Amino acid sequence: MTASQQIRYQRTLKNISLRALAKEAGISASALSKIESGKARLTVEIAVRLAGILHVPASLFLLEKAPQALARRSITPKDTGVIHQNPGMRLEVLCSDFKEKTNLFWKVTATATSVEDCGGMRQHPGQEFLFILSGKLEIHTAFYNPYVLEPGDSILFDADQPHAYVAPDGPCELLMMNTISMG
């Protein structure tokens, strides 16, 4: 399923009209229609907004193949990334200006004190890598007992298993990378 098909599918699944979704995302219905039909380019910023409204991972909308390119780089100056707010979690999109969308990078502040505070377990295609910068993060997954990660710890796991993040001692800052399966 293409990114544009995935947006339409998620919108229809949640019974949201094109006009209503466009309005909430701050774009015209015409622009959203063009994105859904593949006639307009989907930016990471719009993908993140739509994902937040539809309560799905942005990675669902960013599955397109990378172009062949050499000597590219992407810089996100401190505190300038697009912010995406989920229950119990604030995500800042990092280094998002490449057309390649097989990896998504985030600076995350987890604040949920329970699985319920973060909206319950979530899952998405691909793998997820976390590196703890400060605080403690308790990771809950469907197939393993909860595990507490501390500064300097990292974890890589298959993100299609339901998972959730809890910050038992207050805010936890971490770096997150989502690797999207192209399968």
UniProtKB/TrEMBL annotation:
Cited Pfam families: Cupin_2, HTH_3
PROSITE patterns in UniProt: HTH_CROC1 (PS50943)
Alphabetical list of Gene3D superfamilies matching this protein: Jelly Rolls (2.60.120.10), lambda repressor-like DNA-binding domains (1.10.260.40)
UniProt KW keywords: DNA-binding
Molecular function, one GO term: DNA-binding transcription factor activity
GO CC entries: cytosol
Superkingdom field: Bacteria
Protein name from the UniProt record: Transcriptional regulator
Species: Mesorhizobium kowhaii
Lineage: Bacteria, Pseudomonadati, Pseudomonadota, Alphaproteobacteria, Hyphomicrobiales
